[in-house]
Amino acid sequence: MSVRPTPLMRLPLLAGLFTLTYLTYSILSPFLVPLAWAAILVFVTWPLYRHLLRLCGHRENVAAGLMTALLMLLMVGPLAWLLVMLQAEVRIIYAHLSEFLLRDTLDLPEMVTSDYPWLASEMQRLWVLVHENPAILKDNLRGVVDVSFVQLKSFAGGIGKNIAKLLFTLLSAFFLYRDGPRIIAQLRSALAHTAPGHGERYLGAAANMTRAVVFGIVLTALAQGALAGIGYAVAGAPNPVFLAVVTALFALIPFGTPFAWGAVAIWLLVSGDTIAAVGLAIWGTAVVSSVDNIVRPLVISSATQISFLLVMFGVLGGLASFGMIGLFIGPVILAVVAAIWQEWLNKPVQEEELPEA
Asked: Considering the domain boundaries, does residue 225 fall inside one?
């Protein structure tokens, strides 16, 4: 006669499973971020891999190897070119900054001097005070240099770590390409056991949100950076490539681009290029920010059928909690939660039968 296990008898098993889960997480935690990046890259490029797999005669190892090599070229090549371009432009920025600091007087636009004379007078007074006492400027520059040196050491130390993460990402991508269908089948089986009848819906919500975030946020940010770079070049701003890269990074955050092109417009205004500053402000408002305010919500809302406000909270919250990978993880988590919420709301309510009096 079989004995039915009691909760007390199951306690050692639950404790063992909890310990095993914790140890598994401790072992895999250094590789979770590269694995997440690899999963996102593989998901986005999966149609291309399927086409390449057919061309290779369904030889999975060959197709996965070629696709991983293509990913490496797409990631390392533009990054190396960008670093070379930025290195040259940083030197130019340093030269402009040095020349600006050596000026005896601060050239302010006529609009500031005529409409706000008190502000112009105060700025001129502070500028003269700093140049009359070189020790103040020297101490400030020393502080900036010291902070920059510390940041440079941290950046140099992080290069090796980021290269290792890149290698683990590419290695994970190879196996995800090769074993992708089997992994998805196992995931669907697991969801069928844990959430019968609903797992496929949650998996579809995660897939749609990942696709929407990639096309609605990343590609939109790249487009905004390119459009802003055109505006910087036409306006005569120094180092338009560097500024375009900075703008693209700001554009990853919803409604972040005005802080980038707005700062450049203010710099041009303070430098005396009033027409260029006004033109850049008009270009940034009418063209660059319109991509952020119109295209991104349309792409995301049409792909996911959830509020763009929820997506924005997912992006910002994910970025604060998980770093750059949170741009994708945050909205995906909220999309699955929204799918569960809708599933629960659509569930028919079972009315309890009242006992007869």
From this structure: yes
| Token reading at 238 | 């120094």
Number of helices and strands (H, E) in the chain?
Answer: 15, 0
**Could you tell me if residue 14 is inside a domain?**
no
Residues in the chain: 357
Is 323 within the bounds of a domain?
A: yes
Please give the C-alpha separations between residue 325 and each of 34, 118, 302, 319, 341, in angstroms, as whole numbers.
9, 47, 23, 7, 25
Cα separations in angstroms, 149 against 86, 96, 134: 18, 20, 22
Q: Long-range CB contacts (< 8 A, 24+ apart) of 298-307?
A: 299/212, 299/215, 299/216, 299/220, 300/212, 300/213, 300/216, 300/217, 303/208, 303/209, 303/211, 303/212, 303/215, 303/216, 304/205, 304/208, 304/209, 304/212, 304/335, 306/334, 306/335, 306/338
Determine the average pLDDT of the residues in 140-160. 51
Residue 185 resides in a domain: no
Higher pLDDT, 150 or 57: 57
Most confident of 60-69, 121-130, 252-261, 298-307: 60-69
In 31-182, beta strands by DSSP E: none
For the chain, what is the domain count? 1
